[in-house]
Amino acid sequence: MHFLKGTHSFFTHVIKNPDKKFVMAAWGAKTLERTARRFPNVEWLGTVPYDKMPELFNQYQRMYYHPAKFEPFCRSVGEALLCGIEVDGGDNIGALKDYHEFGLDSLRQMCSQSKKTFWDLVEGNK
Q1: 3-state class of 56 per DSSP?
Q2: What's the CA gap between 37 and 75, in Å, rounded?
Q3: What is the pLDDT of residues 10-54, one digit of tens each?
Q4: The whole model's pTM is what?
């Protein structure tokens, strides 16, 4: 959790939607954690091991994520999309922008090729 990651935006969303239930898997400053735990409509999970994230994503239908600044990709959003989760986010998230522009199949293909693309760029092969 960090203000640049949109934590304050999320808290505002939670306050404006008291009838909705939220589940929060996150880590960060203890003050932000204490704030999150105080909301009666937020179930706090804390840090979830990386290998458990697909299982977590597959339990839910929607993810809220509105970072304060541009994020070139945002792995958690990309993974959520690949798990079939609808993402409530903006154009300042690369993975979501690619998803809207090119579709899920193209996003999946780009992600599967990302390691090779990265090393090709590092090694000057492109």
Answers
A1: helix
A2: 25
A3: 999 999 999 999 999 999 999 999 999 999 999 999 999 999 999
A4: 0.85
pLDDT score for 28: 92
- DSSP letter for 98, please: H
Largest CA-CA distance found in the chain, in angstroms, rounded: 53
Q: Cα–Cα distance between 50 and 58 in angstroms, integer?
A: 14
CA angle (102 as vertex; 87, 62 as ends), nearest 5: 10
Take residue 78 and report the two structure tokens written for it: 């990309």
Contact 60, 68 (CB under 8 A): no
- Say if strands 86-88 and 62-64 run parallel, antiparallel, or are unpaired: parallel
Q: Mutual orientation of helices 94-102 and 104-112 as an angle, nearest 10°?
A: 130
With vertex at residue 93, the alpha carbon angle to CA 26 and CA 59, rounded to the nearest 5 degrees, is: 45
Q: What is the predicted pLDDT for the residue at 125?
A: 81
